[in-house]
Specification:
The protein has 17 helices and 14 strands. The strands form 3 sheets. It has a 6-stranded mixed sheet with strand order 1-2-10-7-8-9. A 4-stranded parallel sheet has the order 5-4-3-6, with helices on both faces. α3 packs parallel to α5, α3 crosses α8 and α5 packs parallel to α6.
């Protein structure tokens, strides 16, 4: 990828983004950009986090939506806007449309979680549930717009949207001029297109690295001429895009230095660390930048890295699951499968080993019937809580020394 085009070569310029910032800054939250000392120590980079999860709708998408709404004509405002989205774009557009008195219609896939539908409805938008995915919803939105006359506001493949999203980088470089690298999530590409436009307009070298979920490498494929499969259940559903934008792909090809792919395990760990260390709730897509630093520390070591925590809308049950899985992977929560003899006192004697090692037993699953062992054999699964991986290893050693066959039940 090259980094030398002039602003005239591309559909969005630094002047467009500066104008967008002047246009929207009084109606959005000027979110802080703060140093994370702990994450810096963990990764070897100097890590600055921009807390866009503190926007009113908990995502940066408000920026592009508002920039677009403020440039509509009076006639367009009267007819209203329509968009296809299952998440943050829907809420950001609906919120600011209501503020400005512009009718908003949001077409959402029928599979959209009810909480997201309700959050969007709370901004007085008309909701249409249609299609199995956002692509089908977008096709329906175009049909509705053709009939009813609304203006379609695309979630990422639009110059006004990109200019609005790029205002995040304007603020970050004002607050922390020493940033020399950005790690930015890529879904459709609107955010990174705006950030890269700002970065490459500076009078010094700033590297821009895009981050995609390993399950959805759509922009990576387009830029690198690859054909990796796109699909699956990802924690980062906000960047689970199979068809990236045409405008954004053009900007990314010119201005973005690299794209890396992160696995689900890295995304889960990033979400968990941000909650534990920074005490902030971030959705999977919003944690992708940090996930890249965890997965590729050598790529970022020694650099001053700006990361946008671009959204905080994560289902609470999913968040709880992510946190528990992270505890399990770190050895602080474990399930041990132990073979016992069918005789009195076996569970009592087993529990004594846990007591001696000061390990807290959370659950006991005693299995006599559904097992491949002989009729007098039985399996016990014990969920337990330890201080760390070393503590867990000491417990397993003690169990072996006491004559028990024990194996950990591992996470995928």
């Amino acid at each position: 990828m090259t980094t030398v085009p002039t602003s005239a070569d591309l559909p969005v310029s630094i002047d467009d983004i500066r104008a967008a910032h002047a246009r929207i800054r009084d109606a959005i939250v000027r979110t802080p950009t703060l140093l994370s000392r702990t994450l810096s120590e963990m990764t070897g980079a100097t890590v600055y986090l921009k807390f866009e999860n503190l926007q009113f709708t908990a995502a940066y998408k408000e920026r592009g939506a508002l920039n677009t709404l403020l440039q509509m004509t009076d006639a367009q405002r009267r007819c209203g806007v329509i968009a296809a989205s299952a998440g943050n774009h829907a809420q950001g557009l609906a919120y600011h449309a209501r503020r400005l008195g512009i009718p908003a219609t949001i077409v959402m896939p029928t599979t959209t979680p009810i909480v997201k539908v309700q959050q969007t409805e709370s901004h007085e938008a008309r909701i249409i549930l249609f299609g199995e995915n956002v692509d089908e919803s977008l096709a329906h939105a175009r049909a509705v717009a053709a009939t009813e006359g609304q203006t379609i506001v695309h979630p990422f493949d639009d110059a006004k949207i990109i200019a609005g999203q790029g205002t995040t980088a304007i603020e970050m470089l004002e607050d922390v001029p020493q940033i020399d690298m950005f790690a930015v999530p890529i879904g459709g590409g609107g955010l990174i297109s705006g950030i890269a436009t700002v970065a490459k307009a500076q009078d010094r070298a700033i590297e821009v690295v895009g981050v995609e979920a390993e399950l959805y490498p759509s922009m990576y494929n387009r830029i690198n001429g690859k054909n990796l499969e796109c699909g699956g259940d990802t924690l980062a559903e906000g960047i689970a895009v199979k068809e990236p934008g045409g405008i954004t792909a053009r900007i990314i090809a010119e201005l973005v230095d690299d794209i890396v792919l992160v696995a689900e395990r890295d995304l889960e760990r990033a979400v968990s660390l941000l909650l534990q260390i920074e005490k902030t709730v971030v959705e999977g897509a919003g944690a992708a930048g940090l996930a890249a630093l965890l997965a590729y520390p050598e790529r970022f070591r020694g650099r001053t890295v700006g990361i946008v925590l671009c959204g905080g809308n994560i289902d609470t049950r999913l968040l709880a699951n992510v946190l528990l899985r992270d505890l399990a992977r770190s050895g602080r929560l474990a399930r041990l499968r132990i073979r016992l003899k069918d005789r009195p006192g076996q569970l009592f004697n087993l529990a004594r080993v846990f007591d001696e090692q000061q390990v807290n037993i959370i659950e006991v699953y005693h299995q006599r019937v559904f097992t491949t062992l002989p009729a007098k054999g039985l399996i016990t699964d014990i969920e337990c809580e330890t201080r760390d991986r070393a503590h867990l290893e000491r417990l397993m050693t003690a169990l072996h020394m006491a004559g028990y066959e024990v194996t950990p039940v591992e996470l995928a």
